[in-house]
Amino acid sequence: MIPDQIITSRTIIRLTTPEDLKAIYNWPSYPVPFTEYNMKNPLWKGKDGRYWWEQIDVPERVHYSVLLPETKEVIGLHAFVDIDRDKRIINNMGIRFRPDLCDKGFCTETLSVLFASVLDSGIQSIKLDVSAINPRAINCYKKCGMNIIGDFWIKHDGDPVDLKDPFWTPHLQHLKQEKDYWLRRHYLMEITKKHSDLS
Ligand SMILES: CC(C)(COP(=O)(O)OP(=O)(O)OC[C@H]1O[C@@H](n2cnc3c(N)ncnc32)[C@H](O)[C@@H]1OP(=O)(O)O)[C@@H](O)C(=O)NCCC(=O)NCCS
């Protein structure tokens, strides 16, 4: 059984409620180059017209909210997506922390306890894919025990690539220019029960 609630030293992690979605909807935007992760990016709407993070009633998903214990503000969202309960695999995840609270270790703390708990509950493998031009996210997932197990290319739907801006220079190895769009590398990452036991 995946747990309903976990308390950490700084947060409460519990199943997402419809009330939480209203707070998340009003989060401010991420700065460039992260605007594609904005909660209201229409690209991330599902077939039913709802944003991916609103789909808390879909059976093969489990969504967690991360709250500050003092104020009960929702500062993070973590979705386990495409859960195959027969094979005991979670095939993907979605993660966002409130823009003003990124880079403060909340995700590392949250994923570490969620992974330990979920793998302990009988899940054998948790996977996700992440853009190679998002080293902050990759670094966080590695710190939580995930390993890169593959990569693939998809259309870059993020902030426009500006070759004159030195920001993009280290990322060019993960970008390929096509006629009128860019492709970018995504990494497939995984943590397994075995890995978690060893760590
Ligand atoms: C990605 C995200 C979930 C990570 O959560 P977080 O709470 O900010 O992450 P943490 O603070 O726990 O860890 C980030 C780590 O990356 C490091 N980091 C930050 N910027 C980095 C960069 N440009 N390159 C490499 N590492 C970087 C941080 O220093 C930190 O490592 P450290 O603790 O060893 O110093 C969060 O930043 C977020 O919501 N970002 C916007 C949406 C997004 O990118 N979602 C992920 C989609 S797969």
Tags for this model:
alpha+beta; Aminopeptidase; 4 helices; binds coenzyme A
Helix content: 10-25%
CATH topology: Aminopeptidase
Portion of residues in beta strands equals 25-35%
CATH class: Alpha Beta
* Cofactors, ions and other ligands in the entry: coenzyme A
Structural features, described:
It is a single chain. The protein has 199 residues and is of the alpha+beta class. It has a single domain (5-198), classed as 3-Layer(aba) Sandwich (Aminopeptidase), CATH 3.40.630. It has helices at 18-25, 106-120, 135-143, 193-198, and strands at 5-7, 12-15, 62-67, 74-84, 89-97, 125-131, 147-155, 175-177, 182-192. Strands 1, 2, 3, 4, 5, 6, 7, 8 and 9 form a 9-stranded mixed beta sheet that branches. It is globular and about 50 Å long. The relative contact order is 0.15. The protein binds coenzyme A. Coenzyme A (COA) binds next to strand 5, helix 2 and helix 3.
Helices and strands in order:
Elements: E1 5-7, E2 12-15, H1 18-25, E3 62-67, E4 74-84, E5 89-97, H2 106-120, E6 125-131, H3 135-143, E7 147-155, E8 175-177, E9 182-192, H4 193-198
Parallel strand pairs: 5-6
Antiparallel strand pairs: 1-2, 2-3, 3-4, 4-5, 6-9, 7-9, 8-9
The structure holds coenzyme A (COA).
